[in-house]
Amino acid sequence: MTTRSSAVVETTVNENWRGAYDLLVTADGGLSRAAENTGGLIEQNFASLTGTGGVTAQQIEDIAAISAVEVAAPLAFIGQLSTPSYDVIVGASEPDGAKSTFFSQLRGFDVSINVDTHDGVTSIPLATHKAHVVTSPPATGSEDDLPLLTGVMDDGDVQGIGMADGSGTWTVDYVAPALPPLSAGLIAVDPHAEAQLLSSHQDLFATLGMFDSALSGGTEPAELAKILQREVGEEAVSVGTYFEAFNNLTSLDGDALPLLVSQGAYPQVTASLQATERLIGQNFLTNHYDAETRSVGEGWRQAMARAPQGERSETEYDFSESLTAFAAPQLHVSLPGASEASGGAMVSTTPNYDSSLVGRVEYDAAPQSAGDSPSGVNLALRAHPQGVANVGNAGGQEQTYRLKESSGISFSPAPVYAPLGVFNPHDLVQGVDEASYVPLGTYRSTGITVVGGEHDGSTLAPSFSGRGLALSTPGAITTMAAANQLQGFSGADVVRVRVAGVGNYSPQALEKIGDVAGTITALGLDVRVVAGSSLDQVAVYVPQYNQAGDLGWTVEEWTSLGAALKVEQAQNLATLTLLIVTLVGVALLASVVQGAGVAKRRDEAALLGSFGWTQPRIRRWFFTEDLPSLTIVAVAAAYAVNTAHIGAARTTIIAVVGTFVAVVCWALWSITRQSSTRTHVARPPKLPARTASGIGSRIARAHGASTVLMGASLVVLTLTGVAFLAVILNSRVSAGTSRIAVLVQDALVLPQTILALVGLGAGIFMFVNALKTALASGVGQYVMLVTSGWDRDMLARCVRGHIFTALTPGCLMAVVGGISASFIVSTTNPLPMVVTVLAMCGIALGVASLWAGNFASKISTVKADK
Fold first, then answer.
1. Which residue in 134, 163, 102 sits closest to 288, CA to CA?
2. Are 797 and 855 in contact (CB under 8 A)?
3. Residue 1 in contact with residue 754, Cβ under 8 Å?
4. 37's torsion region: left (phi>0), alpha (psi -120 to 50) or beta?
5. What angle do CA 284, 286, 287 make, to 5 degrees?
6. Cis ω for the linkage preceding 74 (within 30 of 0)
7. pLDDT at position 676, please?
8. 495 DSSP β-pair partners
9. Cα–Cα nearest to 150, from 44, 325, 290
10. What is the largest CA-CA distance in the chain?
């Protein structure tokens, strides 16, 4: 079973010890600063490494030139791309306007629009407005006449637009403010190296690589524009922006910045449209609208309020997936009854660049006032609030926790943006649920779960400002070659290195990775071994989250370096300790049995001597009986010594086996030792026993050997149980709470449980045998008591007195020793082990009581003539 446990650890670690890369490299001191306040754990998405820079292009080339390096994939945080503020376009579009129901008559609406973002816990208002509008078909019906939309909002007149194209489509709409500018990160990678790390997405990064090669090879601008046309079409950006990019590339005179555009970088944005139709008369426009000035009169609002109400509708919109850095800054909602929303005017969008970066969170130790941290976490921290940020124009606010930093990179003059394709960051994450997963950096938004309180189980979403706890994924990806052209660019923030020729988890594999790490360190860089790492749970207390106060505890996953090695060492040590505990328990019980059997064997030896047997022959006879137990203990000890890689463990094993062998030798010598000529005369007790249980106690004291055996078996049984529980609990603490630790622990539940049951089974077996031996030692007295007229109840009290007297010393020693051991060996809460000690002693007393009652029932049926 020990071999099975070790094999489980080795197999599980082999299958889960290695992620997409083996080494994480930064400029000198970058990783040390990142992990100094976080217990050595690295925050997901490398947020603590943003803006460090410092790994030069020459150093990246030097790393890639190392013969044992398979992939060297740099990553740089460039800055932020921000869109203009967004508008919401409210209107209607009918493919055949002249025949549509919507434009069949004059229609009035009370319109209310609310635009919100949701952070996973609460909704935050971004914009809200109300309007009273009227739509009308063309007044004359001529081809040049247009449908009409006009009205008033809370802050002024509605500036409606009506359109009619040559195909018969009629459209009306008006515009209201919806969102403030949105920002998303811009990062740079080496597309060829990134494609090797993300092997299932090679085509995506191949597009960037092709554009890079064409640009560096002096390809004519017109050919660059064809790459844009061939690879992206119009899916990545708005129609207007696409044509603008195509034209700018065709006449390129400067730098071009190839980009992959994210479809999931911005926070969740939803809108709710509530509209109540007003049943206005056909003369409404005549009375309240001036066609020449295209304005409404002062009584418009009052007239709309007096009109009877018609049908009320409410429509929900989710715009999250339509927000990208190059999308048209427009949200579209339709009026009730319309076939579709108005498409609005075709616009081009060139995002603004900002060198600011969203950086790390400042943490310190969680205060006592925060309460107990969630169970099963490796580290508990408290996040420092950085101040409230106002979002939108509807009074929305959110707390910020991340520092605002700067990359120092500037665009002067601004490059031509060349959006080559789109990507969904969630699709780029490979093996996210595997124990070996380590973040590639920025592709995965951090999953932060609220623990406890009214929001228990909620997952925090990236904040609208981008500076909340949950990080957003990047809005766009460019290339390192393009980034090297930018002013102020200081090199990559991190380099992810994969070592060639590394297979299963082994000392040789770790040594090879360590050799490469040493070579890179010699280049003046900071290196951490990521191979064998795994995500580990961290608890973060979140204060001052919103106006309601503290959010409370949250749990997220960070990278625990060296998790596989920690798990392997902790669990193999646990298995070895379990084996030693079992061996010690069995050897100790066997030694007690040897000692307790000396008197009986001495009588047998005297009988054999009377037949003429010599002492050597008698010793050989009894040695043959002891040979199986000696063989079993010796084989188990040899295996344990061979398995143990710790000197103290080997010494303990040898000492235990040596003690057992010495006891066997002493027993063999004592068996043939001549008995003393002095006769021991037992002194009678001063007072006679007056109760049945008292007589039973006298019988127990008359047979000391069985009492010693029973007490020793109970002590060993209890201490073995405490030791097993302590070893398993402590090993789990030592192994940590990382994904790979949980995986290995789950796989070891069965073999470690079986190994524990083997040790406990040996103790139970010896306890039962001691119980039987104790009862058998007094069977003569019990039969005599039955023949003298005792009934079953009196005999049962006598037998229980016998057993409880024999058990009392063992129980006391077991309780004292077990509780003491619980506090000594426990690295966590000793309460489970204390409960185990008391429970085992209670169970032993209960079993002994039941056994004594059953034994008394059998004896009481013995006839006097027997």
1. 134
2. no
3. yes
4. alpha
5. 65
6. no
7. 41
8. 25, 74
9. 290
10. 141
Rounded to an integer, what distance in angstroms lies between the CA atom of residue 717 and that of residue 563? 34
**Under a CB-based contact definition with an 8 Å cutoff, are residues 559 and 536 in contact?**
yes
Question: Which residue from 537, 553, 563 is spatially nearest to 735, judged by alpha carbons?
Answer: 563
**440 CB neighbour count, 10 Å cutoff:** 22
CB 248 within 8 A of CB 457: no
Residue 522 DSSP SS3: coil
Question: Residue type for 758, please?
Answer: V
Q: What angle do CA 400, 402, 405 make, to 5 degrees?
A: 125
Q: Which residues pair with 352 in a beta bridge?
A: 82
CA distance readout (Å), 101 to 142, 336, 337: 19, 11, 8
Provide block-wise average pLDDT over 10 residues at a time, the chain (866 residues). 47 55 78 60 64 82 92 89 86 89 90 91 90 85 73 78 81 88 87 82 80 82 75 59 78 82 83 92 83 79 89 90 78 90 74 83 72 76 90 87 84 82 72 52 72 88 85 85 81 87 73 87 85 74 88 83 57 63 68 68 79 82 78 73 64 76 78 52 58 83 73 74 68 55 58 68 76 80 83 86 85 81 67 82 87 85 52
How many Cα atoms occupy the beta-carbon half-sphere of 94 within 13 Å? Answer: 21
Amino acid found at 106: L
Q: Give CA–CA dist 479/473, Å, rounded.
A: 17
The bridge status of strand 534-542 relative to strand 552-560 is antiparallel
pLDDT for residue 277: 92
Token code pair at residue 254 = 């400067």
Please tell me whether residue 264 adopts helix, strand or coil conformation: coil
Task: State how far the Cα of 581 lies from the Cα of 827, in Å rounded to an integer.
Answer: 18
**Token pair belonging to 100:** 């549509």
Q: Using DSSP, state whether 502 is helix, strand or coil.
A: coil
Tell me how far apart the alpha carbons of residues 565 and 509 are, in angstroms, rounded to a whole number.
Answer: 12
DSSP conformational letter for 369: G
Q: Where are the beta strands (DSSP E) in 42-146?
A: 69-82, 86-94, 107-118, 123-136
- Nearest CA among 727, 739, 614, 753 for reference residue 672: 614
Closest alpha carbon to 5 in 578, 566, 509: 578
pLDDT recorded at residue 678: 42
What is the pairing mode between strands 494-499 and 23-27? antiparallel
Beta strand 23-27 with 156-158 is: unpaired
Six-digit token pair at 816?
């004292």
Q: How many helices (H) and strands (E) does the chain have?
A: 22, 31
Instruction: For residue 351, say if its preceding peptide bond is cis, omega within 30 degrees of 0.
Output: no
- What is each CA distance from 776 to 152, 745, 773, 858, in whole angstroms? 104, 45, 5, 13
Give 81: exposed, middle or buried? Use CB within 10 Å, 0-12, 13-18, 19+: buried
Give the single-character DSSP code of 857.
H
Task: Give me the residue label for tokens 């490494």.
Answer: 49
Instruction: Check: CB of residue 477 under 8 Å from CB of residue 187.
Output: yes
State the amino acid at position 367 in one-letter form. P
What string of DSSP letters covers 546-608?
BTTB--EEEEEEEEETTHHHHHHHHHHHHHHHHHHHHHHHHHHHHHHHHHHTHHHHHHHHHHH
Place of tokens 């076939």: 339
Sequence-separated (6 or more) residues with CB below 8 Å from residue 267: 117, 118, 119, 320, 461, 462, 463, 464, 472
**DSSP class per residue in 232-259:** HTTSSS-HHHHHHHHHHHHT--S-EEEE
Task: Output b/e per residue, 680-718; b: 16+ Cβ within 10 A.
Answer: eeeeeeeeeeeebbbbbbbbbeebebbbbbbbbbbbbbb
Q: Which residues pair with 269 in a beta bridge?
A: 117
d(CA 779, CA 493): 84
Q: For residues 475 and 182, give the distance between their C-alpha atoms in angstroms, rounded to a whole number.
A: 10
Q: How far is it, in rounded angstroms, from Cα 136 to Cα 150?
A: 9
Report d(CA 471, CA 361) in Å as an integer.
10
| β-bridge mates for residue 289, sequence order | 296
